[in-house]
TrEMBL record, chains A, B:
This is Phosphoribosylformylglycinamidine synthase subunit PurS. GO terms for molecular function: phosphoribosylformylglycinamidine synthase activity. NCBIfam families: phosphoribosylformylglycinamidine synthase subunit PurS (TIGR00302), PRK05974.1 (NF004630). Belongs to the PurS family. Keywords: ATP-binding, Cytoplasm, Ligase, Nucleotide-binding, Purine biosynthesis.
């Protein structure tokens, strides 16, 4: 059993309306020092697989569904865990 | 100048409809080994502050806006960067 963390972030230069909205809200709350906010996702997956296949599996899932390769970068961390 | 990463994740036991939707989609794509998916956010903030104030500032922003303390846990990483 594997615990996999997939981090997706918008590529540099891609507009981040959600980040801009958070920046404005923080300014309204008085946090003027905040210059920029970029928002991404962190997905924690529990996957039943074998050691030799897990990395390829994760790459495939990222490319096919979890990340949008046009506007997002992704990275992942794979950790073997004892099945509960 | 500081680069701060704030990670928010749903508390254990809190229903994650987005995670369930991703799990189902992965199953449809043939990735039957995926047992669970939990989705959280990673926010990267650029903040102009001083070393003695930055941590308190980040905690306040998390408690007031960036995380929902009722259903989310949060953690953060603070890194000093050279202003560009």
């Amino acid at each position: 059993m594997f615990k996999v963390k997939v981090y997706t972030t918008l590529k540099a230069g891609v507009l981040d309306p959600q980040g801009s909205a958070v920046t404005n809200s923080l300014h309204h709350l008085g946090y003027e020092g905040v210059e920029d906010v970029r928002i991404g996702k962190v997905m924690t997956l529990t996957i039943n697989s074998t050691e030799d296949k897990i990395e390829e599996l994760v790459k495939e899932m990222c490319e096919k569904l979890l990340a949008n390769p046009v506007i997002e970068d992704y990275r992942y961390e794979i950790e073997e865990v004892v099945a509960q």
